[in-house]
Amino acid sequence: MQEYLPISINDVIEIANREGIYPGYTVYLPKMKEAVYTLSVFSPKAQDEATIHIDQYSGAVLADYRYDHYGLMGIVIAWGITLHKGTQFGWVNQAISLLICLGIILVALSGFYLWLKRRPGKGIGAPSAPSIKKLKGFLILMIALGIVFPLVGLSILVVWLIDGLIIQKIPQSKAF
User: Which residues does UniProt assign to the signal peptide (predicted)?
Assistant: First the structure.
């Protein structure tokens, strides 16, 4: 019975270089005689992601999964991760993410400030609602955002239904 010897880690690195794997990959060593070397890289750009499996004895590439092989959801997820991490477009990506974060902080602070200006007396209740005629632009914006972001739209719809069907029917809730 012939015993086969596994290839060296240096051979695995040479194969990775030959296959053009983005630097910074992780090498998973085979733990059983039938297992393979697995190289996996999640690079700063979605297009450079790869996972390959290498036979531990012959060095043959058994499977090569790259960005080009992803389906639509794989592409969306890969882009979402690199955009979220701020690595896909470098400093431009990070600057846009910073502006989004600052915008969220501004919305939270301005909401609190506007509530302070409009609150009833010295209480903690909600300010009186403005006339619906003044809110046409706001309603159009909310509908558009609800279409673009369906979960936001669904949550707005649920709150509107709870308010209209339950809270407005209970006199004690209006007093608070």
Answer: none
